[in-house]
Amino acid sequence: MVGVVWQAPSVTNSAARLVAGDSFVAARCGWLADVVTGEVRPDVTVVFDGDRVADVAAGDAPTPDGAVLDLTGCVVTPGLIDLHTHLTGEVESGSYGDILMESEADAALLGVRNARRTIDAGFTTVRDVGAFRAFSDVSLRNAINKGWVTGPRMHCAGAYITCSGGGGEVTGFSADVCVPDAMRFGVADSVDEVRRAVRLIKSHGADLIKVIATGAVLAPGTNPGAPEFTEDEIKAAVDEASNYGTFVAAHAHGAEGIKRATRAGVRSVEHGSFADDEALALMAERGTYLVADVWAGDWMEEEGTKSNWAADTMKKIVDSTETQRDAFRRALAHGVKIGFGTDSGIYPHGMNIHQLPKHVELGMSPMAALRSATLWASECLGNDEVGVLEPGRFADLTAVEVSSDIDGRSTSVDEVLGDLSRFVTDMRHVVKGGVLAR
Ligand SMILES: [Zn+2]
């Protein structure tokens, strides 16, 4: 890759020979951001055993025979986790008309492109929280796991559980337009229908359940502030999900919807735009994660203004962006657990990393922001194989360049880890399972 200039004698890769798909037996890291201890450790060797970490050792520790990845000019973090993606979709014009003009094959191929863009952005694991074409995410996950396409490890929701005409429906068309069944798979209007939807969604291979508890910003005719399911209906989803050993992520903007979802026992509240202090205190008490897409509003406001998105949609974007950021700051004060999630697909895929410095701007320390996208995100997923570089977990990592003489800049690790904006501009390598993805 361009920009790799560090060539310690003990390492075997060179800038010219590095190719995506190369596998390594170890990585020599200039610095390791240790998300467990909170320390930044200099001169660390991460030794791999196949796709797993075998050892994290100080200095030039011995490595098995094979190629060693030279990251001595970089600060290394565990592979990043985005808890809120939609890899098989992308709303390009702020309108759901786009979705109806795409076939199932289009969604699949779009997913292939987006999976590549997402791992290139540093994200080796995602929680994909709903696809308009039911189970297109599950197919993409399976293709990645089989090695057909390159992309992050995926935890999939399969489809949205939403009420008729709710925030998870493809809305905005006249009443006589028939939206395809595949886009209405999880529509449910009672406790029993919610249970049925959970069972069917699980049987088709979903890893978790996504419930739309309030209206949505981009769904015409729905109100993000308004609750759309009763507490009993959400609780039915939580109970049924737990029968399958999994959990519910609840889309909820409005305070009442957040409280119902939290009392019902969801694992995470997505968005949280209009959370009041009572809702945040309840989330802190119950250990409910807040996964708030606090960067996407910047992109939507800019793009929507430029491209003349519908006035109704623009008003909802403007109304929710700053209130969400205020809620995020107050959530930190309440001690709510924060998970990193960007809602990729409402902005172009591959820009996920822009949200990392936003977490710092809104009051998190840089190490806390990194934890929200690694350690804490893995806890929210219930996945102890990712999120930390330690023996037994997957050998997934990102490397951000600290110093380069290519363009005459010289920087310190403190500067890179200061506000995390260098993660946007200077990410050099991404490794998934010991294999170079970027
Ligand atoms: Zn979303």
Describe what this molecule looks like in 3D.
The chain contains 14 helices and 16 strands. It has helices at 97-100, 104-120, 136-145, 191-203, 231-243, 255-264, 277-286, 296-306, 311-334, 355-361, 366-372, 375-381, 413-419, 422-425; strands spanning 26-33, 40-49, 52-58, 68-78, 80-85, 123-128, 153-156, 160-161, 209-212, 248-252, 268-271, 289-291, 338-339, 397-401, 427-432, 435-436. The protein folds into 2 domains: 26-79 and 387-436, Urease, subunit C, domain 1 (Roll), CATH 2.30.40.10; 80-381, Alpha-Beta Barrel (TIM Barrel). With 438 residues, the chain is of the alpha/beta class. Strands 3-2-1-4-14-15-16 form a 7-stranded mixed sheet. It has a 6-stranded parallel sheet with strand order 8-9-10-11-12-13. It has a 3-stranded parallel sheet with strand order 5-6-7, sandwiched between helices. Bound molecules: zinc ion. Residues 84, 86, 129, 343 line the site of zinc ion. Zinc ion is lined by residues 84, 86, 129, 343.
List the helices and strands and how they pair.
Elements: E1 26-33, E2 40-49, E3 52-58, E4 68-78, E5 80-85, H1 97-100, H2 104-120, E6 123-128, H3 136-145, E7 153-156, E8 160-161, H4 191-203, E9 209-212, H5 231-243, E10 248-252, H6 255-264, E11 268-271, H7 277-286, E12 289-291, H8 296-306, H9 311-334, E13 338-339, H10 355-361, H11 366-372, H12 375-381, E14 397-401, H13 413-419, H14 422-425, E15 427-432, E16 435-436
Parallel strand pairs: 1-4, 5-6, 6-7, 8-9, 9-10, 10-11, 11-12, 12-13
Antiparallel strand pairs: 1-2, 2-3, 4-14, 14-15, 15-16
Helix pairs in contact: 2-3, 4-5, 5-6, 6-7, 7-9, 8-9, 10-11
The structure holds zinc ion.
